[in-house]
Amino acid sequence: MKVYVAIKRVIDPYVKVRVKSDGSGVETANVKMSMNPFCEIAVEEAIRLREAGYADEVVVVSAGEVSCQEQLRTALALGADRAIHIKTDAVIEPLSVAKLLAALVKQDQPELVILGKQSIDTDNNQVAQMLAALLGYPQGTFASSVTIESDGVTAGGQRAISVTREVDGGLETLCLALPAILSTDLRLNDPRYATLPNIMKAKKKTLDVITPEALGVTIKNHQEVIEIMAPMQRAGGVKVASVTELVDKLKNSAKVI
């Protein structure tokens, strides 16, 4: 079984995010970047499937500028077999990402595609669902447990995968016929760290670079960011001496009653 994992380059989660002075976006110059945390979980799950003998190859994919290759090399150091970089300088919306991945999946025919459920920068939580719709594949979103039984098949004789996902009422277990799309939740696993020997080996692993045009996809944006604003600074708390003073401040200062 071939497994594809889509990853995204984002601002490191431990870095304080700053808005550009002109309000046009978030400052990324000279800011530490890393792999999206949910994507790290997706990479880890794919590697575990290969280590368990269910997968033969793990391929990581990312779309964006040349700098994305840094995160692809990180994924290779974690244990992925090869990487594909869809090179473009354009701002890519979730639908365009899904179209790029769909075109790639149709070419290479992986049996399983794993994505993080969302990225920590835009928080859209859309690509996995859009990709499943474009391909007509079954999907298991927000996976907290993934199991592939060696003899697990559907009624139609297709190989199957069991996905446990968290829903409002508790847990839901789905049986998906492969090929399928998965998106990972935080509780699925704990990603490993890349060791120095594996980091060195990753430099020699295959990293293919292609363009959206080679996949027959035209990137088109349907949204426009008008302005990005930092949240208002919260004022310090005030101690009151009595309930009467508290009610007075709530009524006249905060104007909430």
Q: Could you list the spans in which at least 5 consecutive residues all have pLDDT below 50?
A: none
Q: Note the main sheet.
A: 9 strands, mixed
Spell out the helices and strands N to C. Answer: EEEHEHEHEHEEEEHEH
Distance between the termini: 62 Å
Fraction of helical residues: 25-40%
Number of strands: 11
Broad shape: globular
Radius of gyration, taken over Cα atoms and rounded to an integer in Å: 22 Å
Q: Overview of this structure, please?
A:
The chain is built from 6 helices and 11 strands. It has helices at residues 37-51, 68-78, 94-108, 127-135, 196-202, 243-252, and strands at residues 2-6, 9-11, 33-35, 57-64, 82-87, 112-116, 139-147, 160-167, 170-177, 180-184, 207-210. Helix 3 packs across helix 4.
Give me the secondary-structure topology.
Layout: E1 2-6, E2 9-11, E3 33-35, H1 37-51, E4 57-64, H2 68-78, E5 82-87, H3 94-108, E6 112-116, H4 127-135, E7 139-147, E8 160-167, E9 170-177, E10 180-184, H5 196-202, E11 207-210, H6 243-252
Parallel strand pairs: 1-4, 1-6, 4-5, 5-11, 6-10, 7-10
Antiparallel strand pairs: 2-3, 7-8, 8-9
Helix pairs in contact: 2-5, 3-4
List its salient traits:
alpha/beta, 257 residues, two-stranded antiparallel sheet, nine-stranded mixed β-sheet
The gist of it:
The chain is an alpha/beta fold and 257 residues long.
